[in-house]
Design brief:
- With 187 residues, the chain is α+β, with helices and mostly antiparallel strands.
- It folds into 2 domains: 4-27 and 108-185, Ribosome-recycling factor (Topoisomerase I, Chain A, domain 4); 36-103, Gyrase A, domain 2 (2-Layer Sandwich).
- 57% of the residues lie in helices and 14% in strands.
- The longest helix has 38 residues, at 109-146.
- The protein is elongated.
């Protein structure tokens, strides 16, 4: 039998994870500058197993619009290059034998607007996830109250805490989105 504090603690953990997912999603959206987290979602078909690029190579960013990918296993060079080319980064990598050079072209105004739409969609997905967590917790609290496990005042107090936690986490996502939009509009 769970109590209200357990439900609220569980909610806080799940909502924080939703914010972390939003951070990861925003990190994978390309801005004017190159950064290693852009490659976070690139999966390489490495001997029949889809493996994250970060497990197969080191990624360095020596310049604002260039990344160097150094595979640990040189025989995987072509596979890594193919995975980067087919990813949604919109780049054409070039190999010089030892490393893969990835040059990022300057973003056009249209492309920036597309990325902002993607960011807003990902933010809304995270907000929906947080609202679903809230709904599930609220149902659990109402059931506890109905079953007589907690009093009406206790349930009302817990519900206020739930609403505060929900609005705090949604505000974090809104803040992340605002920063990502500013980053994307920066030329």
């Amino acid at each position: 039998m769970a109590d209200l504090n357990t439900v609220l603690a569980d909610v806080a953990v799940k909502m924080s994870k939703a914010v972390d997912v939003a951070k990861e999603d925003f990190g994978a959206i390309r801005t004017g500058r190159a950064h290693p987290s852009m490659f976070a979602k690139v999966m390489v078909d490495y001997y029949g197993t889809f493996t994250p690029l970060s497990q197969l190579a080191t990624i360095q960013v020596p310049e604002a619009r260039m990344a160097l990918v150094s595979p640990f296993d040189k025989s995987a060079m072509a596979l890594i290059e193919k995975a980067i080319r087919e990813s949604d980064l919109g780049v054409n990598p070039a190999t010089d034998g030892a490393v893969i050079r990835v040059n990022f072209p300057q973003l056009t105004e249209e492309r920036r607007k597309d990325y902002i739409k993607v960011a807003r969609t990902k933010a809304e997905d995270s907000r929906i996830s947080i609202r679903n967590i809230r709904r599930t917790a609220k149902e659990a609290m109402e059931k506890m109250e109905k079953d007589g496990e907690v009093g009406k005042d206790e349930a009302a107090r817990a519900e206020k805490d739930l609403e505060k936690s929900t609005s705090d986490h949604v505000a974090k996502i809104d803040d992340l989105l605002k920063h990502k939009e500013a980053e994307l509009l920066e030329v």
